[in-house]
Amino acid sequence: MEVHAHTHTSRKKWTHYLWEFLMLFLAVFCGFLAENQREHMIEHQREKEYISSLIKDVELDIASLKLSLGVRKRYINYYDSLVFLLKQNDKNTLNDIYYYARFLGRMDEFKYHDRTIQQLKSSGSLRLIRNKKVADSIVIYDNEVIKEVLNQQERENNVRLDIYYTSIGKVLDGYVWNEMVDDKGIISRYKGDPPPLATTPGDINEFVIKVIYIKTSYRLTNKTIETAITVAEGLIALFKKEYHLQ
Question: What is the DSSP letter of 181?
Fold first, then answer.
């Protein structure tokens, strides 16, 4: 019987296994670093996209704030004239009294453009804003500055409703009031001579007090709006500086 000799491979040294382990470890580690870097770049890009979107929203806020500020200034002048004319008690100024009073229920309120901020908060993406100074400024703008403007608007809206429900009907003629507004909601002076104010001196006095109250509310709101405009403009400047945007 023929006997076959068995060939034996040489046994690998422990250093060979160590080298294989190191190579495998480096491959996995480098892959991890590459993936981590890729995720970091994606998050950084998303962060800049959110900031760019926030800039657009805040720019819209500034435009709305300035519009609302200007409207209040105009109405404050109207109410000053209204109080003055009521004090004069001249029947020849009744048309002016009705015209200025007709704006007591009007206001172009500030509208908050919080689309991006709400998206950041609802999706948990606020964590993407890694710049602490920027993140803190966004929270202050949303939770304090704009909130105060909105709260003040709500307070003055209650004042407008109060004068509508309790005083205007006692002082001014409802039919004249109705004819001063067209189908598009545009206010015009009454065509003709309005009837005398059908009221008592006490009703006039209450009406004047509430007009002054509305005027004061508008002035308070305008102060918060002016502060909000300053903060909003500073916020945009901060965004552009920290993220090197034009």
Answer: B
